Structure prediction request, 913 residues.
Amino acid sequence: MQNSSVTIQETQMVILADGETPSAAANARGHLFEKFIAKVLERLGYEEPRTENLNVTSDGIEIDVTAVHRLTRRQAIAECKAYSSPVSAKELVAFYGKLNTERLVLDDGGIDGFFFALPRTTQQGAEKARTIEERDPHFRYLNADATSQIAQEAGLTSPTPEVLRSLISSDPAIIVTEHGVFSCLKSLDPDTRTTAEIIVWAYTGQVPTVVIDLIRQSGYAAGARVRDARAESVSPVSSSPAQDESIIVEVRGSESDFEYQLPASPQYFVGRRKVISEVEAIISRGSGVVVINAQSGWGKSSLALRLKDSTRKLGGLCVVFDTRTAASQEYVARALRKAATQAQKNKILTLPESSSWASLASALETLKTAEWNLDSGPLVIFFDQFENIFNDELLTREFRNLALGIHELDSALSVGFAWKTDLVGWTEAHPYRLRDEIRSSAHVIQLPPLGPAEVDTLLRKLEQQLGAKLVRDLKERLREYSQGLPWLFKKLAGHVLREVSDGATQSQLVSEALNVQSLFEKDLSELGPNEREGIYQIARYAPVPVSEAMEIVPAEVVQTLLNRRLIVQVGEKLDTYWDIFRDFLVHGTIPIEESFILRVSPTSVGRLVREVIDLGGNAAVSDLASILATSETVVYNLSRDLRMFGVLAYEPTRIRLVDEFLAAIDSEDYLRRRVAKSLRRHRAHSTITRLVEQQGSEVPLSSFAHALPRAFPAVAASEKTWGLYAKSFAQWFEYAGIARLKSQSLVLMDETEPPTMDLLAGNLPRRWSRGVFPKKTPGPAITLLKRLRAGTEVKLGGSGVEGRASHELVLLGIVDVDSDGRIRLNDKSPLTSSGELIPDKLLDCLLQKPGMADAISLLRSDPTARAEDLGEIIARAYEVQWAQATVELVGKQVRGWAKIAGVKVVVDTRRRT
Prediction:
């Protein structure tokens, strides 16, 4: 390989200038290029050059020049473009069209045309240029090599000095500065074929130090050493491959199904068959570019690793790089070198002896001239976490040039990019155009969330690891809360596995707030103060070099965070295990909406809440089922939506209102605000808001139902069921004051509009005087009554026997409730001053309750009256229909209260049912 002195010979044009501002430097570069082109035209026989247009952009310099031939006096039009990448064919065609238009203006059509494309046009452009030159003798296309030759003939530059001809070199360049025009090349390391140093020389004499400094600071040198060929002896110099390779890091996959800190390894990958087939078809053709776009956590990295496995099965090689370690333009060529070297070891290709990895241009030429094994599969190079690249305009441009250059290789190489689309801020900055140019050159795949069938597969995998079936409610909550996002499902599943391992039941997990923010907060709660401060510091600057992190965070703290896998090391940098976690640490919020489905109307749920209130705020599911004349399953279903809103606290086999609800002065207002807050950050809310923007102020309920499946991709339901869900959401929106139903349409409500629906009809203290009496045996209530007489302070409600007893006393009207929820004896109390019960006074209170007078009358006439008969009397009085078990239960409580009030009661066991 060392016998070849020059590898890639395509000349580059590098124009360097200083300036007090970037704008001043760009302007100076433009005028330097203008003078250089004037000298080139002069060498071609033209004089009186006049610049018609000068435009300096981030991509390069464009000038339009007119001139006159010294001898023939023919006019000439020259369009000159010095870009960082090959000039497109459409630019050439546009110029030739303009040239011919100008020719039509002149009677004799005597205008010469010159199209300078530096470094060159694309392959398609070069073919068009050759065709035009064959048919038009007055048109000429000049690339950087041709321009360099003219510059030598004009005495602007000199050929490569003899002393350099023994070196392995590439990337020759013309350096244009205000101090003159110079030539240079890159001397390569004999082993790695990367840049060892930059060697520059002048036409005569030595190169000024200021020029050496300009070259060293340029993107062409990329930090390499620069020296004058004539100022010191020249000998081969080695680069530092170990340092080069340290920044090229491949993406690592998970080691289990639910390791959420890493993307899924191929063996744990689920679904995406259509997308995989689509990408496999592209890479099998070669010379393709693929862009995978999706929001954070939708599985881009996992898909890239899955494609790595697919490519291996095709007999090829796929390398997935983590671009968070990319820090300079040279990263791109180094990544190509690493992938190509692996491909050569796998016998997919044979690299040419003239290989060079000194620049992107030389790397692409190396791959173009490589010998590809036709019996092997493709080579795929995937750049993951690519959104980090957009912070660096120069690096973004280099990748853009890679995407454009791949199409010209005509090889088995394909390149992929994956970046998230939920970015905020950078899209209005300059790189968005470069981003769009990458996309326009690629086959773009918008990765959707996982569908119902794929989530079913994950649920089965979770059941396998649990060694038990998931209860229905927990399964539905995992489905809805995961939103079809792979990483979020893994996070939730990992939490379930950990909690069950620690002894939690699935019923307890159902009652928890299974949302990602609460899980992030749990991650932090397990850290000490130093660890919490450390992770906040790292998140603020992530991805941050390890050396810098160690300056602000103690090493032992960093190690603890690594051990807990809250941060990960990527090459020489540290980052949080997920970018959404980083956003949470930095901003305190996460960009994930609530995603549970409301299946029950607020009216139905309101009945349950009122009964729980009547039972002291804490009721057994079995009691509620009896009171509501329904099954326990229905009670659980009715309570489900309240758990989602955070109105219920967990207590096994019971329905318990949270303390904040019970303590609220206006519980209707508390419940409404709680529901509204939850719904405003819900997917259903953003869906209806979007529909209003699209369709106008009134959105048909059918349109809302049609849009819900897209908002809940992990949920499978029939069209009819989605219609029911839409109606349920609409009713809850109306209760929350967000939107109201108008016929069969939804209309957003103004914040000043009063609510149109109440569930509780009043504030808490007044509501305790409503409800069916009796529901409980009298013993606990009488005991509590005596404690009140003894001066014990008791608050209304609460859990347990005392809470239910306090409710019975309020219903009887023998205690009052103050504004703080404390209960006090009133003048109807059936106790003496010493605390003895006065049966007749208690009986007077009982007779005031609906149905009790008739029930006691029956007992007086028949002390053995059946509980069922007594219960039916109370049911008729309250105009309710109860199940038989509830009727009997209430009848038994009637007998108990009547007996303690002095009414004779005989329980005839022969008449029991």
